[in-house]
Structure formats: C-alpha cells, structure tokens
Design goal:
Blueprint (H helix, E strand, L loop, with lengths): L3 E4 L13 E7 L12 E2 L12 E3 L5 E4 L2 E11 L2 E5 L1 E3 L4 E4 L1 E8 L6 E9 L2 H4 L6 E6 L6 E9 L4 E9 L6 E7 L3 E6 L2 E7 L14 E9 L15 E13 L13 E4 L6 E6 L3 E7 L4 E7 L2 E6 L6 E9 L4 E8 L1
Parallel strand pairs: 1-9, 4-7
Antiparallel strand pairs: 2-19, 3-8, 5-6, 6-7, 6-19, 8-18, 10-15, 10-19, 11-12, 11-18, 12-13, 13-14, 15-16, 16-17, 20-21, 21-24, 22-23, 22-25, 25-26
Length: 335
C-alpha cells in the first residue's frame, strides 16, 4: 500500500495570528459508505487498555449518510462483549507531522459514553504507547457540558500528560482543532484557543511530537475514565462527524509525497543487537534523545543487524534517509 506522509520542509516558529492554511487532506463524508482509501476500521474487543466494554466492528456500527459519518454504540452481545461500536483510523494511509487538524463533530451524552477525535504516533508498532505519543484533539465523557484536549507522552520517568477543558454544549455541532509545529501544540474550540503545550527543543522529553501521527475517530463505552453505563444510559447512541480536515501553512505549501519505505526494528527493547528490516536502502543515523549522534550506518534492503552493545541504556531515534529521498524515523529502547 502506498502511504502518503506530509512533513514540514523546514523548522517552524510560533504561529502568527494571521496564519494562512492550505488544505492537504480531508473527508467530507459526502458518499453513502466509508471511504476506505482514507480510513480503515479498527476492530476488536479486548478493552483497549482502558477496560472498555465495546467490541469495535467493521459493520453497520459505521455508516455514512446525509453528509456525515455516524458511529453508533449499541448494547448487544458480540464477540464476548456486552456492547458494539465503531473506530476508524488513517494508519498506513495518511500520516502528518505539523499542521492544523480539525473536525466538526456532534457528540452524544450518557453515563459511560466516551467519544474522541485523536491521534497516535505512527511508530506505535515499533515503540509502543506512550513512547509514540498521543494527541487528543477532543474527548468527551458522560454528561459533561465540556470537552477535553490532552497530550500524552513518555517523559523518561513514565507516562505523563498535559491538557485542559473548555465549556461547550457538545451535543450541537462544534469545530475542534489543533495547530501544531516543532515549537508547540495549541488546542481550539470553534477557533478559540483554550490550551497550549510547548514541545520546543525536546522540553519535558516531548520528542514524540516531532514525528508523524495518524488520525482516529471512535466511540467507546465504559472505561477507567468515564466509568460504566447505568440505567440512565440510552442505547443506541451516535457520534456524528460532519468533516475531518488537515492543513499545512501556506509557507510550506510544497508537500513531500513519496512512497515510504516499510521499516521495522526488533527486538524492542533490545540488549546487544538491533535488527532493522527495510524495503529500501539508505543511510541510517542513531541519535540520543538530546540530539547527539551515536552512530551512522548503511542500511541495505532486507535485514540488517546493528550492534548496540556499547550504547548506554535509554531511548534512541533511528533515522534512515532512503535512496528515493524519503525518510523513516522510529524509536527503540536499549536495555
């Protein structure tokens, strides 16, 4: 599958108040079915790390009608779970580093109901969560007249997060967005900023947010944060999405659009040797999280074994400049 990766061509500074944006990707949900050239349903019912109740299906929990995507949660037995719902992702299809990401969304209320529009680091399969980073553009729980915007990452000592909430009636359509560059992430409700996180110069070990992320929409039922449905919770219940859009600053209007090499590293964590499998040749650089260069290697197409026995324990970045001009970056942990 060809993956489209959109990256800034140069370092950014703080966004100007009159920043102009160029639309580079969107789904307006104008058809009668989910566009699977843009989204992939993610299925399963294992609790998703939060003790959730739903089984995500790829069936009629996901519908497109009337110019909107509708994700419906139901109280029904499926796959050993007490509820069903839907979740879609752009992983391996569309990934973005820096830009403006927004969606116009109407959320349902209800005890134990947890809709979200969020993002995960595209290297999650290589480094796991929270090392990959997470950006929650919008989350809502239960019956609150407010929404939440949060970032999660690994700060060297463990999982940490930073976020804020904004008061709104989320049962009406509202526009939720972030603006993100190499210095900061800002959260907006209907164009009004309500939260800010500095990620400049790896402050607070926020290097996760200098790499590409993919988009996620889902409607969870129950879990550690909202708690669980009770007699007051009405099923079925629906999350409605009018559109999802991604932009780049006009100043970065030149977009890199290449077929990205398939790269994997294992084991991760590793002790003495790291195996790197790449579909393209290239020059690899291993750097510490402080930006210091640890080693430089030539990577061949296929399997490559790199000695890391002399490296100190910790997290490292592996960056490969491929022969076709594209770049792959992933993280690994040396034990």
């Amino acid at each position: 599958m060809t993956k489209f990766l959109f990256l800034a061509l140069f370092g950014l500074t703080t966004f100007a108040s009159n920043a102009q944006w160029t639309l580079i990707w969107s789904d307006e949900f104008g058809g009668d079915a989910l566009d699977q050239t843009k989204w992939v349903p993610e299925t399963g019912g294992w609790g998703w790390g939060n003790n959730e109740l739903q089984y995500y299906t790829d069936g009629d929990n996901l519908t497109v009608a009337g110019g909107a995507l509708i994700i419906e949660a139901r109280q029904e037995q499926f796959g050993g779970n007490s509820h069903t719902s839907g979740k879609i992702i752009t992983k391996d299809i569309f990934e973005i580093a820096y830009g403006k990401i927004e969606a116009r969304i109407k959320v349902p209320l209800g005890q134990g109901i947890w809709p979200a529009f969020w993002m995960l680091g595209a290297n999650i399969d290589q480094v796991s969560w929270p090392y990959c980073g997470e950006i929650d553009v919008m989350e809502h729980v239960n019956n609150e007249m407010a929404i939440h915007g949060t970032a999660h990452w690994h700060n060297g000592g463990g999982h940490t997060y930073d976020g804020n909430s904004a008061v709104v009636n989320p049962t009406n359509y509202q526009v939720y967005s972030i603006e993100w560059n190499d210095q900061e992430i800002r959260w907006f409700l209907n164009g009004n900023q309500y939260h800010y996180l500095s990620i400049a110069n790896n402050t607070q070990s926020t290097g996760e947010f200098q790499l590409p992320f993919y988009l996620i929409l889902n409607l969870a039922v129950g879990g550690n944060w909202p708690g669980y449905p009770d007699a007051s919770t009405v099923f079925p219940t629906q999350l409605e999405i009018d559109y999802v859009r991604a932009y780049k600053l006009d100043a970065e209007a030149s977009v890199i659009e290449n077929e990205i090499a398939e790269v994997s590293v294992f084991p991760n964590p590793a002790v003495d040797q790291l195996t790197v499998e790449s579909s393209l040749e290239g020059n690899a650089t291993i750097t510490g999280m402080d930006g210091s260069i640890i080693s430089e290697e030539v990577i061949l197409s296929g399997s490559n074994n790199l000695s890391i026995a002399d490296m100190a324990e910790g997290m490292y970045l592996l960056t490969i400049q491929h022969e076709n001009g594209s770049t792959s970056t992933t993280r690994f942990v040396k034990e």
